[in-house]
UniProtKB/TrEMBL annotation:
Residues 41-255 form the Histidine kinase domain. One of its GO terms (molecular function) is phosphorelay sensor kinase activity. Residues 1-33 form the HAMP domain. This is histidine kinase. It is a multi-pass membrane protein. The chain holds residues 219 to 476 of 476 of the full protein. Its EC number is 2.7.13.3. Keywords: ATP-binding, Cell inner membrane, Cell membrane, Kinase, Membrane, Nucleotide-binding, Phosphoprotein, Transferase, Transmembrane, Transmembrane helix, Two-component regulatory system. It catalyses: ATP + protein L-histidine = ADP + protein N-phospho-L-histidine. It is found in: Cell inner membrane; Membrane.
Amino acid sequence: LHTRLKPAHTGSELEELTDTINLMLDRLEDAFRKIIQFTSDVSHELRTPLAALKAGIEVMLAKQRTPEEYCELLENNLIEHEKIINMINDLLVLLKTDAAKQEFYDVDLKKMLCELYTAFQVITETKKIDCTISKMENITIDGDQKLLYRLFSNLLDNAIKYTSPGGNICISLKDLENEVIVSIRDSGIGISENDHNKIFDRFFRVDASRSRDTGGVGLGLSICKNIADLHKGKIEVKSTIGKGSAFLVTLPKSHFNR
Ligand code: ADP
């Protein structure tokens, strides 16, 4: 790459063709750059849990230990192992949304959000978070059922992860003329304004050490953004440090005439 064509004569059809080819070369170059960046990010992120796994095995092999010590070391290994599996699963979802063709069917959003609320009820109750779902109309939109569920469950999962016991979360659905807005609000730790755009980047974590405790690798929100994009929608964040965050997902109701 880096090669660009120069037309022999200006103002000709050949010049237009050259411009088009150069534009395509630019896009190809951009795509290659992104692939290289992505591969290098993935390798870097996988190296940390793999190194922890290796270190754990080396410690076990170094000398004879008590059964309790072996148990503790094996449990730590299992946690690192789970992180790798979670990351690979997230990467597969990212690839799927990157390459997905639009095959949309009717999605009953009210039903989906109620199911989501119920699925997370045990976790919110255990963590003593007051999670509510606002009164909502029946709304059906064109979409991919599994991917939309993934989008909202990532957002709810984050809201729970970043909200302390005693806090609250609210799920709501707003019906506008041609689109809907799903919002998931929490009274958690909040995100500084500087980071509002960055949190949707792959592998970005506001505080890497804190996120490591919560088991995240920084892929959840980039998956959400990909899924919203695939539905020709958008995802926005409103958040204040120490007060909480609201993630708003706007989705068109229909994809016909688009
Ligand atoms: P992770 O797996 O680390 O949670 P995400 O892509 O889902 O990755 O989120 C990126 C970062 O955005 C998180 O590491 C966290 O710092 C921040 N974040 C996401 N959701 C929230 C939230 N509801 N409240 C506060 N911070 C959040």
